[in-house]
Amino acid sequence: MSGNAPKNQKTQSLKGFASHYLNEVRQCLDEIRLDEVEKIVEMIHAAYLNERNVFILGNGGSASTASHFATDLGNGTAVDGRKRFRAVSLVDNIALISAIGNDLGFE
Description:
Largest sheet: 2 strands, parallel
Distance between the termini: 40 Å
Strand order of the largest sheet: 1-2
Number of strands: 2
Number of helices: 4
Strand content: 5-15%
Shape: extended
Radius of gyration: 21 Å
């Protein structure tokens, strides 16, 4: 989109971009295997029942998602009188990340 393009051309370009983006999102959502999602939920629930830690990590923008998800599990599900999820976002501790990398390898 050039700065001199007519308004209608800009609108069409934006609509085309948005349409393409939403189609890509739909395709990604259609590829989610619900049986795999169910397995993940069962694993997280088993960790909760057995008082195990759930470690979450991500790279780039997904690091923020990992941090948010750990917070949601640890705090967002808290109920008075019940044990809490033990969720840890590995991306929130750069010292831990570098120690793991040094000890085990960054790959």
